[in-house]
Q: What sequence folds into this?
């Protein structure tokens, strides 16, 4: 079980189905258990630390890409023309694919997302993983899984991890050109029957993007300590995943998330992603634990709280969270598959 069975071979099989001017791919979101928060190179999206995540089933993005005649890219997301920063990010990613494959055609991209965007639910991770797969296929560019992960990373760092299913580690890498900074599977989706219960406390778009939040946090007095602690957290998480030790994984996940937010809070001006309901969820998770339900939270760049627990405990975690006044919706996701070509 402790092999890359959800990785290189299966991905190559899944992506070898088609190559040409037109491709559709789907990818799931992932939630980091040991966080990525800070870059050693902003242009190449190279992280200051490694990170470990769980890919989730059911929160996904589909991307259809066609290269063809035309002066400009046509980018449609959930039925609406992409604009502003979102459009610029997509176009510069497509430019990267065009430059590498020496193509000049415009791209027509249609994306459909089952994840609300811009509220801290990792929609960009799923979006750029799906786009990297569909665009490279449509451009006739054959990549192995590590290269595909490194390409997805250029769109959004955490997208490097959504190429794979189950538990995934994204390596910091050492090289300045970033070729050694890609994700790899640690354990496939069926390694461990856990659940991530997602409490949505606000659907208002976040005020500070991850991109800006990371840049600003680099000036925090706590940032050096955040970076210095990452390797120990990664080692603890890897061992916990291998041993299916929920308490060990949950405690290091909470620790990593709290350190990330502490570093962000301590920068100037401060960054605080939490709402009152976020705190209520944290206290409820701790109360559930005191009542004998092993449940552990993590929080990304937004106010939503994601709670890791055993599959059998998910109903009790849902019941504990959905009764809180500020919780708008609760979702339950199991471990999900990696990115795949679907057409
Ligand atoms: O990949 P980005 O730029 O959206 O940053 C993701 C940052 C966090 O979600 C907060 C942490 C992580 O490791 O996913």
A:
């Amino acid at each position: 079980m402790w092999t890359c069975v959800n990785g290189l071979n299966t991905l190559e099989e899944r992506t070898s189905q088609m190559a040409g001017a037109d491709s559709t791919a789907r990818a799931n979101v992932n939630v980091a258990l040991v966080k990525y928060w800070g870059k050693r190179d902003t242009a190449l999206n190279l992280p200051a630390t490694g990170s470990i995540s769980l890919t989730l089933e059911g929160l996904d993005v589909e991307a259809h890409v066609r290269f063809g005649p035309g002066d400009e890219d046509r980018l449609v997301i959930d039925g609406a023309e992409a604009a502003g920063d979102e459009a610029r990010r997509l176009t510069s990613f497509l430019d990267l694919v065009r430059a590498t494959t020496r193509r000049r055609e415009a791209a027509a991209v249609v994306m459909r997302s089952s994840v609300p965007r811009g509220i801290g639910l990792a929609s960009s991770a799923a979006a750029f993983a799906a786009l990297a797969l569909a665009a490279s296929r449509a451009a006739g560019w054959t990549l192995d899984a590590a290269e595909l992960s490194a390409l997805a990373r250029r769109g959004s760092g955490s997208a490097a991890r959504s190429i794979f299913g189950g538990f995934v580690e994204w390596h910091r890498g050492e090289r300045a050109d970033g070729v050694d900074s890609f994700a790899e599977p640690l354990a496939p989706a069926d390694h461990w029957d856990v659940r991530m219960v997602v409490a949505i406390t606000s659907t208002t778009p976040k005020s500070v993007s991850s991109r800006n939040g990371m840049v600003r946090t680099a000036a925090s007095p706590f940032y050096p300590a955040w970076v210095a602690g990452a390797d120990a957290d990664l080692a603890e998480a890897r061992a916990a995943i291998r041993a299916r030790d929920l308490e060990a994984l949950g405690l290091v996940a909470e620790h990593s998330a709290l350190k990330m937010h502490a570093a962000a809070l301590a920068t100037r001006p401060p960054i605080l992603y939490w709402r009152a309901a976020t705190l209520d969820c944290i206290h409820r998770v701790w109360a559930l634990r005191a009542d004998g339900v092993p449940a552990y939270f993590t929080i990304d760049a937004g106010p939503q709280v994601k709670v890791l627990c055993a599959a059998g405990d998910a109903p009790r975690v849902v019941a504990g969270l959905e009764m809180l006044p500020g919780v708008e919706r609760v979702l339950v996701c199991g471990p999900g598959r990696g990115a795949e070509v679907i057409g």
Notes: Residues 8-341 form a domain with the Ribosomal Protein S5; domain 2 fold (CATH 3.30.230.10). The first strand starts at residue 22 and ends at 34. Residues 32, 35-37, 51, 122, 124-125, 156-158, 210-211, 300-301 surround PMV (CB under 6 Å).
